[in-house]
Amino acid sequence: xxYKKIQQxxxxxxxxxxxxxxxxEGTLKPGQKLLPERELALEFAVSRPSLREAIQKLxxxxxxxxxxxxxxxxxxxxxxGMSDPLFDLMANKNEAxxxxxxxxxxxxxxxxxxxxxxxxxxxxxxxxxxxxxxAIAQIENTTLNKNYRSEATAVFEFYLAxxxxxxxxxxxxxxxxxxxxxxxxxxxxLQVLSQRPEVPTRIAHYRKKLLESIISGEPxxxxxxxxxxxxxxxxxxxxxxxxxxxxxxSLRRLQTN
Length: 257
Hints:
Blueprint: H1 11-24, H2 37-44, H3 48-60, E1 64-67, E2 71-74, H4 85-91, H5 94-118, H6 121-143, H7 149-165, H8 169-177, H9 179-193, H10 199-215, H11 219-256
Helix pairs in contact: 1-3, 5-7, 5-10, 5-11, 6-7, 6-10, 7-9, 10-11
């Protein structure tokens, strides 16, 4: 019987695979600068020529870009197709805001489910840290004349941490690619819901339940907590919308009398 010789992979291919995995899993983020060649070679315990060859292949694939005298960076337009003028249009349409909320039902529910199932202690520590950052942003929000953008960003970062903990590259990169649109959606929701003083406390309750179910490793409860949180937000937004509509009609009737 003739046996085929087992081919050992080239060192540069092994390095390439590791760097691609780091980009895919989000360890290396869009726009992030890679360590200098000397340091990166030491980290991988490989020769600089092998490392250089791997980086050249990454550049050929369009995953990194090299700047003369500035270093090597992960391309910041990896998901440029998601930066569509249609997204700008969505950001300014009320109905699209509810569409985005429905989208969040799906992606955040899945992320919460898999985060509870697959998350590590290190992942949970990051999720908790992001959760605590929301309270800090809310305090700053009170002193900054109701600027909800920082709070919206903190809420998004909390959900992004959950996406990372899910260890699902598609969920993570889709959420990251839509970051501006999702932050804008959260921002608009916070502005509207501020009209009802009882709402933030209720949302905080659901968000805490979400955190607890993820950390305790209960996927179904995590999914349910995510759904309850967003369903409550949707219900509250609809109620505020109806109240605003009633006020508008009342004012219109007064003006005609």
